[in-house]
Amino acid sequence: MGRQLVPLTAATLPDLPADCRSCVFWELDPVRGAAAERAGRQSTEKASWITAVTLDWGPCGWVAQVDGSPAGYILYAPPAYVPRSGGFPTGPVSSDAVQLITGRVEPGYENEGLGRMLVQSMARDLLLREVRAIEVFGDERWQRSACMLPTGHLRAVGFEVVRPHPAVPRLRMELKSTVTWRADVELALDRLFGRKGPAPALGAS
């Protein structure tokens, strides 16, 4: 089985699940997001956002392919490019961090190491850019695939809550910690984006 990562660009945007490539929850503020929905321009606005971030800052995501077929993706960017995050009660994201926006592994590809591959690729990319940390808004009430990631799974892979909240805590991972991921954390990384079943309980370091 051949696996590879390709940058997430306007050209590879069609490789994302339909509900993801037309979602601008994070990329636009609520007013512009509602206007884009009314005009049916969500996919166009998403492509424009990815292009703008890539030109200004650099690659902002990866698409995982298995035997040439899209199997998952990850999306991240500095908080200045994510207007929705400023409206969260646990925002804003720290100025020294990049925001993990969202990601997904497609059904049928879970537990094959794609989640780990996506997160490690993001971490390597950000370390090369001398970014100190990754922050993310977790969903304490997560029940299905959506724009946010489940808090329990985020904590299982090494994120720590820095701003508690009963529904949408903000979590942080220092990038230096990514070089010491244990085997159980690697399993949890696979579960994070596949998101099947409860997050695994982690043992002591």
Categorize the overall geometry: globular
Percentage beta strand:
15-25%
* Number of helices, counting only DSSP H or I runs of 4 residues or more: 6
Secondary structure category: alpha+beta
Low-confidence stretches: 196-205
Radius of gyration: 16 Å
* Number of E-type strands: 8
Q: Give the overall pLDDT as a whole number.
A: 85
Distance between the first and last residues' Cα: 32 Å
- How is the biggest beta sheet arranged? 8 strands, mixed
Helix content: 25-40%
State the order of secondary-structure elements, H for helix, E for strand: EHHHEEEHEEHEEH
Brief overview:
This protein is an alpha+beta fold and 205 residues long. The protein has helices spanning 18-21, 30-39, 42-56, 114-128, 151-156, 183-194; strands at 3-7, 61-66, 69-77, 97-105, 133-139, 149-150, 160-163, 170-174.
How is the topology of this model organized?
Elements (H helix, E strand, L loop, with lengths): L2 E5 L10 H4 L8 H10 L2 H15 L4 E6 L2 E9 L19 E9 L8 H15 L4 E7 L9 E2 H6 L3 E4 L6 E5 L8 H12 L11
Parallel strand pairs: 4-5, 5-6
Antiparallel strand pairs: 1-2, 2-3, 3-4, 5-8, 7-8
Helix pairs in contact: 4-6
Description:
The structure is a single chain. It is globular, with a radius of gyration of 16 Å. The chain has six helices and eight strands, in the order βαααβββαββαββα. The N and C termini lie far apart (about 30 Å). Strands 1, 2, 3, 4, 5, 6, 7 and 8 form an eight-stranded mixed beta sheet that branches. About 30% of the residues lie in helices and about 25% in strands. Mean pLDDT is about 85; it is low at about 195-205.
